[in-house]
Every structure is written in C-alpha cells, then in structure tokens.
Amino acid sequence: MAGSPTARRRRLAIELKKLREANDLTCNQVGKELDWSGSKVNRMETGQGRVQPSDVDALCRFYDTSDELRELLKSLAKESKTKGWWHAHGDAVPSWFSVYVGLEQAASNLRSYQGEFIPGLLQTPNYAAELSRGWVDHTPEAIQRMVDVRMRRQELLMGASAPDLWVVVHQSALLHVVGNREVMTGQLEGMLEMAKLRNVTVQVLPFDAGSYPTTGSFTVLGFPDQEDPDMVYREGLTDSVYLEHPVDVDLYGKAFDHLRALALSPQRSTLLIKRVMEEHPR
Fold first, then answer.
1. In terms of CB atoms within 10 Å, which of 6, 24, 65, 238 comes out highest?
2. Are residues 60 and 199 in the same domain?
C-alpha cells in the first residue's frame, strides 16, 4: 500500500465502497442497519475525514469479511490518522492542498501540464517566493514557510523510490517574468538541472503547436498499487478538484498524451529553454 496517511485513507475508502457494493446495498441501508446515518457511510467511502478503527470493525463484521481483511482495514484506519511532514507547516499548506501533498507523496508517476507558471516540483526558491508574494496578505515569514514546503516536496524526486515526473510546460510560462529577469534565469537553469534526473522529463509546448485540448493546468497521479486507481488534480485559488471517475481520468490521460505529442521533444525543449535564458540575462 502507498505510504502516506492520505493515500491509506483513500485506499480504505475504496475498499469499504467495494464491500458495500459487493453486498448490493446502499449507504442508507448500511447506515440503518448500524444505527448510523447514510451520510456517515458515504463520508467513510469518499475519504472525507478520519475513520475510526471501531467503525471499520463494525462494517467488516456486518459485511462478514474474513478476519484477515478486517484487521488489514482496521490497520489502514489507524495509519491514516497519523500526520505527514506537511502538517507541521501549519497554514503554509491549506487544508484543500494538504490532501494533494499526501497523494503526491504516495504516487509512482505524475503527469502534469502547466500553462502559466513553472510547475511547483521544478521551481527554485526565488521563483517560488516571488509567486507567493502575489498574495498580498502574506507576511515574509509566511512566504518563507510556503517556500520551505515547496522545496521539501521536491525531495521526493531524489529518493530511491522517486516517482516518474513528466511535465509539459507551455512556452508562455518560460517568457512570463516572475520577479525579475535574474530570477527567471535562475529558474530556467534550475529546471534544466532537474530535467537531468533519470525520472524527470520536461517538454515545452511551443506557441506554434496548433490546436490542443484547452483544459487548463492539471496533474494526473498514478499509484504503485493496481488497487489504487489514477486520479486527476486541478487547483483553484481557494480550493481544488479531484476527479476519480474512470471516464474523467481517461479523458485527461488522453489530453496529456495529445499535449506531449504536440510538444517539443525533451532535447529540443532544452534548446528552446536555453534560448529563452538568453533573453533573461543576469
């Protein structure tokens, strides 16, 4: 099972839903039998909030599962209550983004398209700080905490079990000056260094790419366990959207395949980035 508490909570939710559907019951029917509300059962199956091991035990006994499965699911419930490293950073990681960070830590592959800015996992500290300054209410201390979180997130790309990261960045993100030209030069240099990692692929979608899916920025997350299906993440100003329906995930997967087919090859992307760097002299 994937390693973060968030991923364990998601896996538990998936398993509980499978058990209910295998018994051909609705959430309301299960809730009535256990003297719960149907909404409580639904929350447990959608990973909304923490699930008590005692509730998992009650469900498993109602579904008449094996002792082994009951203990496994209770263990997932216990482990999902632990906190990840990102929780120690307080409001530098909003609750709606905390879920994504937890899933990102457990992913085996990440496919991301970014149309406006350099992706977070490839950002330098100076670039990330300048982006954070766009939020007028942030103090210098808050900005530093946000930068620290972003840099900590990047560590997952360096580990022995690092996920594969495949990024398509629109050319406009390279030309969009964040901070000043010195910051941009450092950012583009940093992105080229990250692209040298064996598990990181960077492609640039050029201005002359023609027509392509106008989906906005998104990330498709894949997980090592086949029982944990892929999902799509899209971020807004104050919240985020997680898409898990197979039809939605498949559509975004095909959109990403189309985008990377239109993008420059990694080698040609490197050459373009270097040319753009010449336009951002120190």
1. 6
2. no
Q: What is the pLDDT of residues 71-82, one digit of tens each?
A: 888 887 877 766
Residues 55, 61: Cα–Cα separation, whole Å: 10
- Alpha-carbon distance of 268 to 279, in angstroms, equals 17
- Note whether 177 and 256 are same-domain residues: yes
Which pTM does this prediction carry? Answer: 0.76
pLDDT digits (tens, 9 = 90+) for 203-219: 999 999 988 877 789 99
Q: Angle at CA 140, nearest 5°, toward 137 and 144?
A: 110
